């Protein structure tokens, strides 16, 4: 799916593409982000849980400081070539992509060797020691990846999950696990859900109802990011009324 101009303006609540500063397209089935070539002032992009494989459109985003690409279809670390010219990039989340490979150390060292200005990689702070070690253990990327016969597509393994996501998008894009919930929270700059709070509502539910409940929770958290102050106030008032109703019911049962 191609990310359109209209979708960008709607999500960013902007009148023109050069006015877009933050863009959240988490879990939107995207494979084509060529519109990013027309976002010169973008600062924060959230593209996690999509099917993106080509990072070339990002090379013009000179003001980009945070980029979230977790769970996509980035097959080769050579795609980092397109990010090397971004002077302000400080945060990158690239984990759970095919390019990460079986060797976490080599992966991290290669990313840091090519993007030494990063302060945080995959939700983990970058240290000076790592940057020095990356010069030894990391692989220097000097050219963009060679394009195969499939452009901006899914790998075979991702294609299977895509078919499932079409039938049940929430169950595939939104995980029931506490870890996945907190990864989403982190990408949206929200506090993680404490383990005791998370488990308190799941132990007494079946697996099916637990997954459904947490899918709804994650969806609400994502949508809240799109609301303005007025919208959040409405949510707050509704939640307060719901909580009061639950408390009243509990008192009556006692």
UniProtKB/TrEMBL annotation:
<dbReference type="GO" id="GO:0097733">
    <property type="term" value="C:photoreceptor cell cilium"/>
</dbReference>
<protein>
    <recommendedName>
        <fullName>Cilia- and flagella-associated protein 410</fullName>
    </recommendedName>
</protein>
<dbReference type="GO" id="GO:0036064">
    <property type="term" value="C:ciliary basal body"/>
</dbReference>
<keyword id="KW-0677">Repeat</keyword>
<comment type="subunit">
    <text>Found in a complex with CFAP410, NEK1 and SPATA7. Interacts with NEK1.</text>
</comment>
<keyword id="KW-0433">Leucine-rich repeat</keyword>
<dbReference type="InterPro" id="IPR032675">
    <property type="entry name" value="LRR_dom_sf"/>
</dbReference>
<dbReference type="Pfam" id="PF12799">
    <property type="entry name" value="LRR_4"/>
</dbReference>
<dbReference type="InterPro" id="IPR003603">
    <property type="entry name" value="U2A'_phosphoprotein32A_C"/>
</dbReference>
<dbReference type="InterPro" id="IPR001611">
    <property type="entry name" value="Leu-rich_rpt"/>
</dbReference>
<dbReference type="InterPro" id="IPR025875">
    <property type="entry name" value="Leu-rich_rpt_4"/>
</dbReference>
<dbReference type="GO" id="GO:0007010">
    <property type="term" value="P:cytoskeleton organization"/>
</dbReference>
<feature type="domain" description="U2A'/phosphoprotein 32 family A C-terminal">
    <location>
        <begin position="104"/>
        <end position="122"/>
    </location>
</feature>
<comment type="function">
    <text>Plays a role in cilia formation and/or maintenance. Plays a role in the regulation of cell morphology and cytoskeletal organization. Involved in DNA damage repair.</text>
</comment>
